[in-house]
């Protein structure tokens, strides 16, 4: 398979995962706001902080109210991590790799793109937004489902799996970051009373609430949630599980060179993370470090397979 | 309620489906009966369903404009164009005959040049053709076939006769739209297709793959075939990706390929370099290899011509095949058929006046307002004059253009090209159409059953090119025997 195609499929998967994650994040955040009592102030600007996009946001908008933040995160095509921009980028990548994928994959992404394009204006309205986000999440699930059901689990598929899991691990760490942020705020005394609600929503954002209950079998507690989402090797969206997927994909790809070793180091690093004694500030530092390391892993993958090989 | 046929007229041209407003031809009998059984709102619904399908399937072509490149949905008319299989079989033979003769001619041009030596065509005509490539002299592609993929444009005049308008031997496009048009028709009119015996067209990708495999130089069981595209900004990118996908071939861009010192072509894969045997190239000769042709080309592959000349990679179509895709050379095709095949042409040419010939030139100049004048080497319907549809000022301006470069222009009578009913704002109106069948030639010769019917959607317009307001129709070749 062409190096160029490998790179485009990898990014296709990353952008599709990002599209789904953004949709899920916004919908869970709306939920959380509805669960918390009026007195507890929790603004929309927190959503900007987890993608580190506050600076870019304030260059375009004055205040971080619901309307602006939603517009920025879902519909703004000049913000590269917005839902629409991610979906557009996914579509560009699949348009140039159609020959490697089942017909339905292209049609699925194209359909979602056309649907979002026509519905961008209505996301300001909460009711339409809920429906829109649901449609997007279902579309992304259909995409993953038809690839896993229709496509040979060959090299192209492995690059898709690689991209998806790297993006997923990154997003899980960012969502945990959001939790620590909310709890670290100065007004957190009041928020702390609602800590359980917060953690339940975090689990929901990662589709992990049911699995958590079955696995932990006690009430929802911050430390347990953190450990579960970071270290559990069976939960699809935990960081540890994503690394297992990454490691399996890499093992089946040619010329992986030093990459398996890198992943082992990464896995060891994650398993050694101890959040129990960590203050909010330390937790944030740990998660930042984790995100940087994931970025490093991406760099290794790109150097290894996507860089134009010297003749 | 008003009929969708209200005010339909067949007076101005031969109509493919109708004798008159009230009387369908035998081939279109079932279709007309079916259309008349639908309510007007039903027909509109089918049209909308077709447009939706086109959007979702992402069937687009790219239009260049000042505001950047826009991806437009493929304009499709849901009313099919229909032809009797008995007529089609004759056309099919004619197309095979024509491409066989054209390939004999190209081999001859780059070989012995007997056709020229026997005085059948002036040598200046060949030497001055910008698609004659001296680098190709002496080359022998497999099966002596240079033009492996040909799209021949046919039009029917008021006399009911099908004429060949031109042969596209460089990188003809449109076949993916032909295939997708049928997919859409099946979605939109499933109940109609059940009762009619229409020849299938969906084996084209398999035939293309077989043909490409048959031209590989290396005797390998499974030659590695790639489709070389100029990239996503090319107007036919959709088609390149579509055909690659349908054949299970790899779609590559120029910088995915590299020619090494052993004069072999390799593609850059995650496993290292892999040798390529056959390239279905969708890039013009000019941009194919910066070492030989245009130096500034970033689309091609440096060294590709070396590899081809060394017999290490097959190119379809072969470089230089375009020498026969020249509207001046076109005028000599009937003679080629007689000369090389010792047969009479089955399909007639449109009478053609060559401006390089003094007598013809005078005729063209005297009758400019009645003729269609075309440049010899353009495609896409650009740079031409349709005399009867132009103002006196336009005609005079074009006169100067011809005077400056007579070799590069030909004149033809303006044909009253045939029409077919086309859905326009909920009503059927006659619109002019042509037909582009696709012919494959390698070890064997294959012709698509029908082809791509293009339709000029603007009232009275004769220009069917999609870049200039043209659309397309599904083309049905119907087996009437047994009915």
Note down, in words, how this protein is organized.
- The complex is a heterodimer of chains A (311) and B (483).
- With 311 residues, chain A is mainly α.
- Helix content of chain A is 73%, strand content 0%.
- Chain A has 15 helices and no strands.
- The two termini of chain A are 17 Å apart.
- The relative contact order of chain A is 0.12.
- The model of chain A has no long low-confidence stretch (mean pLDDT 89).
- In chain B, 30% of the residues lie in helices and 24% in strands.
- Chain B has a five-stranded mixed beta sheet with strand order 3-22-21-18-17. Chain B has a four-stranded antiparallel beta sheet with strand order 5-4-19-20. Chain B has a four-stranded parallel beta sheet with strand order 7-6-11-12.
- The mean pLDDT of chain B is 91.
- The interface between A and B is medium-sized, with 26 and 27 residues.
- Chain B: It comes from Methylovulum psychrotolerans.
- Chain B: InterPro entries: ATP-dep_Glu-Cys_Ligase-2, CP_ATPgrasp_2, UCP005522.
- Chain B: This is Circularly permuted type 2 ATP-grasp protein.
- Chain A: This is Alpha-E domain-containing protein.
- Chain A: InterPro entries: ATP-dep_Glu-Cys_Ligase-2 (IPR051680), DUF403 (IPR007296).
Structural class of chain B: alpha+beta
From N to C, what is the helix and strand string of chain A?
Answer: HHHHHHHHHHHHHHH
| Alpha-beta content class of chain A | mainly alpha
Largest interface: A-B, 26 and 27 residues
CATH architecture of the domain at 218-312 in chain B: 3-Layer(aba) Sandwich
The oligomeric state of the chains shown is heterodimer
Q: Give the uncertain stretches of chain B in residue-range form.
A: none
Shape of chain B: globular
Helix content of chain A: over 70%
Query: What is the strand tally of chain B?
Result: 22
Contiguous low-pLDDT stretches of chain A (5 residues minimum) are none
Distance between the termini of chain B: 32 Å
* Overall mean confidence score, pLDDT of chain B: 91
Strand order within the widest sheet of chain B? 3-22-21-18-17
Q: How large, in whole angstroms, is the Cα Rg of chain A?
A: 19 Å
Q: Average pLDDT of chain A, to the nearest integer?
A: 89
Instruction: Report the sheet with the most strands of chain B, covering strand number, pairing sense and barrel closure.
Output: 5 strands, mixed
Q: Strand fraction band of chain A?
A: under 5%
Distance between the termini of chain A: 17 Å
Number of domains of chain A: 1
């Amino acid at each position: 398979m062409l190096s160029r195609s490998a790179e485009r499929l990898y990014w296709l998967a990353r952008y599709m995962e990002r599209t789904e994650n953004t949709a899920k994040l916004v919908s869970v955040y709306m939920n959380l706001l509805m669960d918390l009592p009026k007195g507890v102030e929790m603004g929309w600007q927190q959503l900007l902080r987890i993608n580190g996009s506050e600076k870019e946001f304030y260059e375009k908008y004055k205040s971080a109210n619901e309307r602006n933040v939603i517009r920025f995160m879902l519909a703004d095509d000049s913000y590269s991590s917005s839902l629409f921009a991610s979906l557009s980028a996914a579509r560009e990548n699949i348009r140039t790799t159609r020959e490697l994928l089942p017909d339905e994959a292209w049609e699925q992404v194209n359909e979602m793109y056309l649907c979002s394009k026509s519905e961008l204006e209505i996301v300001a309205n909460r009711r339409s937004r809920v429906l829109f986000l649901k449609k997007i999440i279902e579309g992304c699930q259909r995409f993953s489902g038809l690839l896993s059901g229709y496509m040979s689990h060959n090299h192209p598929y492995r690059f898709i799996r690689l991209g998806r899991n790297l993006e997923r691990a990154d997003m899980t760490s960012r969502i945990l970051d959001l939790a620590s942020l909310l709890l670290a705020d100065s007004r957190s005394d009041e928020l702390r009373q609602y800590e359980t609600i917060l953690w339940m929503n975090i689990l929901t954002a990662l589709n992990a609430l049911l699995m958590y209950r079955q696995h932990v079998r006690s009430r929802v507690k911050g430390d347990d949630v953190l450990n579960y989402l970071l270290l559990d090797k069976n939960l699809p969206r935990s960081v540890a599980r994503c690394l297992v997927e990454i490691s399996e994909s890499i093992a089946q790809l040619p010329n992986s060179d030093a990459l398996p070793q890198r992943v082992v180091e990464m896995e060891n690093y994650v398993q050694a993370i101890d959040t129990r004694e960590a203050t909010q500030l330390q937790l944030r530092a740990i998660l930042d470090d984790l995100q940087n390391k994931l970025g490093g892993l991406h760099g290794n993958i790109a150097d290894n397979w996507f860089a134009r090989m010297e003749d | 309620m008003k009929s969708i046929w209200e005010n339909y007229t067949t007076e101005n041209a031969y109509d493919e489906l109708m004798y008159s407003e009230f009387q369908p031809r035998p081939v279109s009998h079932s279709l007309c009966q079916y259309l008349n059984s639908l309510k007007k709102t039903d027909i509109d619904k089918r049209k909308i369903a077709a447009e939706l399908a086109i959007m979702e399937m992402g069937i687009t072509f790219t239009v260049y404009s000042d505001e950047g490149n826009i991806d437009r949905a493929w304009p499709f008319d849901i009313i099919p164009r229909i032809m009797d299989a008995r007529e089609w079989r004759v056309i099919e033979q004619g197309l095979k005959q024509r491409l066989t003769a054209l390939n004999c001619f190209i081999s001859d041009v780059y070989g012995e040049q007997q056709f020229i030596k026997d005085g059948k065509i002036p040598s200046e005509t060949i030497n001055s053709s910008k698609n004659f490539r001296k680098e190709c002299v002496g080359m022998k592609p497999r099966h002596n076939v240079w033009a492996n993929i040909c799209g021949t444009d046919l039009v029917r005049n008021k006399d009911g006769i099908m004429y060949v308008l031109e042969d596209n031997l460089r990188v003809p496009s449109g076949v993916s739209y032909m295939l997708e048009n049928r997919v859409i028709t099946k979605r939109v009119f499933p109940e109609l297709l059940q009762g009619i015996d229409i020849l299938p067209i969906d084996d084209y990708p398999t035939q293309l793959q077989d043909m490409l495999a048959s031209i590989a130089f290396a005797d390998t069981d499974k030659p590695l075939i790639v489709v070389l595209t100029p990239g996503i900004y090319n107007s036919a990118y959709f088609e390149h990706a579509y055909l690659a996908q349908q054949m299970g071939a790899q779609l590559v861009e120029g910088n995915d390929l590299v020619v090494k010192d052993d004069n072999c072509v390799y593609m850059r894969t995650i496993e290292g370099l892999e040798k390529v045997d056959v390239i279905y190239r969708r890039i013009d000769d000019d941009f194919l290899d910066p070492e030989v042709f245009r130096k500034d080309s970033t689309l091609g592959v440096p060294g590709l011509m070396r590899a081809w000349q060394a017999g290490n990679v097959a190119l379809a179509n072969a470089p230089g095949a375009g020498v026969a895709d020249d509207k001046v050379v076109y005028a000599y095709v009937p003679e080629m058929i007689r000369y090389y095949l010792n047969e009479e042409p089955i399909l007639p040419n449109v009478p053609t006046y060559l401006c390089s010939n003094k007598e013809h030139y005078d005729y063209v100049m005297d009758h400019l307002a009645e003729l269609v004048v075309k440049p010899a080497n353009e495609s896409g319907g650009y740079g031409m004059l349709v005399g009867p549809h132009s103002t006196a000022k336009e005609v005079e301006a074009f006169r100067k253009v011809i005077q400056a470069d007579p070799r590069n222009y030909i004149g033809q009578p303006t044909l009253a090209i045939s029409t077919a009913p086309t859905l326009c704002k909920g009503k059927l109106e006659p619109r002019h159409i042509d037909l582009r069948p696709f012919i494959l030639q390698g070890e064997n010769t294959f012709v698509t059953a029908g082809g791509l019917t293009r339709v000029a959607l603007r009232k009275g317009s004769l220009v069917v090119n999609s870049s200039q307001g043209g659309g397309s129709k599904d083309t049905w070749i119907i087996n009437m025997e047994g009915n």
